[in-house]
Amino acid sequence: MSSLIRTTGKEARPNPRADPRWVAARFDRIARSYGLFERLFMVPGQCRKRAVERLGIREGHRILDVGIGHGPQLLAISTPAGDQGRVVGVDLSTGMLDRARDRIREHDLWNVELRHMNILDHHPIEPYDAVLLSFALSSFGEPARVLDHVWRCIRPGGRLVVLDAQIPPTLKWITRPLMPAIRWFLERTVLGDPDMRPLEHLADLGGHMEVEWFRGRTYFVACIGKLR
Ligand SMILES: C[S@@+](CC[C@H](N)C(=O)[O-])C[C@H]1O[C@@H](n2cnc3c(N)ncnc32)[C@H](O)[C@@H]1O
Question: Residues lining ligand 1, CB < 6 A?
């Protein structure tokens, strides 16, 4: 297990995201204020909507939402899956799952099941039609390992959709001197890893990948089809 992160040419240092208890405690602490960060980072609502569309959900589909958190897309995913479908949300944080549970009650989403566990311990009996990671990949200590794992949970012909963010290449020259402060802030809040290269990890899966960008090249929705 890799517990070090490398930061642009500097020495490797311990990656706090490698400890699931630490990650869970962090999200438990910010569960109630999570919406504030969403506003602070100006997450465009449009990219959440697009991520759900790219899942290609049909009646009866089985969908996995990895690091579901407070379940911002639950209603949009649960509705098209219908009575015969199933939505499974996995998360390490009880605080975040409690908020998702409130949403389930509010909208009476009875085809949703929440599991309090590390995604690496989730071994479904039946494969999923589609898997979503929304703003979750960059909070994982071992993103490549998580991607390999969830990729194996998808049926041939199914899809993996990843919604996440990066520092836009055009702003790198401005943000370079600010990187220590950005890392510091993210490690104390939503745990995004500004040094991670999410699209490189996704390309390594070997599926057919399409990427759409929002707010310049800050937010992206990547859809990777698992070939038959
Ligand atoms: C930034 S939040 C994203 C929440 C939500 N998906 C969204 O779109 O806003 C990341 C979530 O991933 C969860 N998480 C991190 N590592 C995990 C792991 N190894 N297994 C399951 N959940 C994990 C955290 O507890 C947190 O709730």
Answer: 20, 23-24, 27, 67-69, 72, 90-93, 96, 118-119, 134-136, 139-140, 190
Q: Taking each helix axis from N to C terminus, what angle separates 45-54 and 74-81, rounded to the nearest 10 degrees?
A: 30
Q: How far apart are CA 158 and CA 54, in angstroms?
A: 11
Q: What backbone phi and psi angles, to 5 degrees, belong to 219?
A: -100, 145
**pTM higher than 0.90:** yes
206 CA from centroid of ligand 1 (Å)? 24
Maximum distance among all Cα pairs of the chain, rounded to whole angstroms: 52
Give residue 167 CA to ligand 1 midpoint distance, Å.
Answer: 20
pLDDT tens sequence for the chain (228 residues):
344 555 554 556 678 888 999 999 999 999 999 888 888 888 898 999 999 999 999 999 999 999 999 999 999 999 999 999 999 999 999 999 999 999 999 999 999 999 999 999 999 999 999 999 999 998 888 899 999 999 999 999 999 999 999 888 788 788 888 888 888 888 888 888 888 888 999 999 999 999 999 998 999 999 999 986
CA distance linking residue 73 with residue 92, whole number of Å: 18
Rounded to the nearest angstrom, the gap between the alpha carbon of residue 222 and the centroid of all alpha carbons in its chain is 11
Cα of 59 vs centre of ligand 1, distance in Å, is: 26
3-class secondary structure for 71-106? CCCHHHHHHHHCCCCEEEEEECCHHHHHHHHHHHHH
Domains of the chain: 35-225 (3.40.50.150)
